[in-house]
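Changelog note: in this version the structure field was regenerated for every chain. One regenerated record is shown below for reference.
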Amino acid sequence: MPLTVNAPDQIIKLDVSVSNGFQAIKNCLACAGLLGKSIIIAHIAEKPSPPPSLHFSISPSHPSESTQLSIQKRAKSAGIRAHQVAGLNLLREIYRADIYGAIVGSKEIKFKPNKMKSGSYVLDCFPAASIVLEAQSIIPCLLFGGSHSFVHIRGGSSDVAECPPYDYFTTVFTDILKRMGVQVNSRLIQRGFYPKGGSVLELTVDPITQIRPLVMTERGNLISLHVKTICAGGMSTPVAQKMVSGARQLLSQYFSQVEIIEEHHQEQFSAHTDDFASVQITGKTCKGCILSGNGVAKLGGNYEKVGNEAALSLVNDFLTGACLDQYLQDQIVLYLALAEGTSVIRTGPMSVYMREAMRITSTLFGAKFYVQEQNESPTEESYIITCNGIGLRNEIPSCGIASS
């Protein structure tokens, strides 16, 4: 990703035509806000030119032997979309920033942050927007304030296909953050399902002095399995039972000695309910690792297959020896880069989103990532990722800051 710093204004310019992921763009703005640096994000959701090389080392045996990787992902349409504007405006409010280009169709954003402001905020989302993705983009922005911050997120969807569902947010994502000293509390007042939305989420973020490094390299044996199904509208208990059946067929083959606990939630009918069904499978190991797989069913679809594929996702992560599942990889990179000291984690195959997150944070923060391929199995791809964090420190005096 090209980087230019123009003295004396010290404006960072990033070409994001390679990534085209809006979550990556918001991460760029969060990084700029934390650093107090102005940033220009160009070529939003445009077809990329040949992708540049990454700014971290990938080696089969030693971090000094670097191999270049590249990323390419094409966008469906150019520019900022309508449902993305609200999140940009919230970042403007948090950082009391000047922002230009936060309008529908814009292909460039100019963001000039000031000091972040702890407080209470409201985010009104488009119905189809994921409230979890919105929450994840807000949390790092509020960590280095002087007091607790509260965010009321409403209107979006708590459960969206191809996005982390709310239950994943609470059972996996925030659990890992706690290990790094980050305390986030949430309360889902109203579920809302794609595409109608209508969710209401309350989020509380505690300020922190510094983020602790994360070391997770030993997965351990699986000791528990939890299968949760959620149904709404015209999809009810029979659908849930078929998803659970499909999940059990595969889980019993690999984890026959592990008890499977089932939980079903039937959403009461309201204006926000639609025909919706999902399954989330969460597995915990004796070393404290949490792996997860999830799926969303369509009305009249193959419900057993949805459950089976969710189970397969968890099984595949387990077989690689990964301590973080494929969904958590990219979500945790920003925190590794901000942490004080060296983090070391073991993952399975690296997603394109993780590679892009590593590139953004190494470019903006100067954090160093080293990726070492593991050769323990000829059929399972896994990596040890080491990150030398920048040790960002909260310098705002406050009696309410949590100890790192």
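Spot check on this record: The longest strand covers residues 222-232. Residues 42 and 168 are 32 Å apart (CA to CA).
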